């Protein structure tokens, strides 16, 4: 029985070790999350700081910007982009699935060896450095 190993996250996906096109690592992902959630939090002030409004705005930011800019504003500020595994456009339904699972939190914190959360695996996407 052969065991497949990889030297770095994304190697088995054919991605480079570092630089453009490599896997977006934890620091960039968390930074992007803070930017996006912070924006939703600030905008929700117009709605009385309602926690559901914050989540709805966060979801709207994700669903609108992922297919249009290949990433949320936070992703783009941190030099990340979201693509399908084959490099194609993510389409319209993948951001909806990915965002719904991201809001649940648990799927986003369970990763594989390529640093892809279950929300990315379910949507068939990968977050790469731009």
TrEMBL record:
Annotated TM spans: 52-72, 92-111
Keyword vocabulary terms for this entry: Cell membrane, Membrane, Transmembrane, Transmembrane helix
InterPro entries: Pra-immunoreactive, RDD, UCP021697
GO CC terms in record: plasma membrane
Chief localisation class: membrane
Sections of the chain in a coiled coil: none
Subcellular location field: Cell membrane
Membrane topology of this protein: Multi-pass membrane protein
Residue span, RDD domain: 52-124
PANTHER family: PROLINE-RICH ANTIGEN HOMOLOG, PROLINE-RICH ANTIGEN HOMOLOG-RELATED
Name used for this protein in its record: RDD family protein
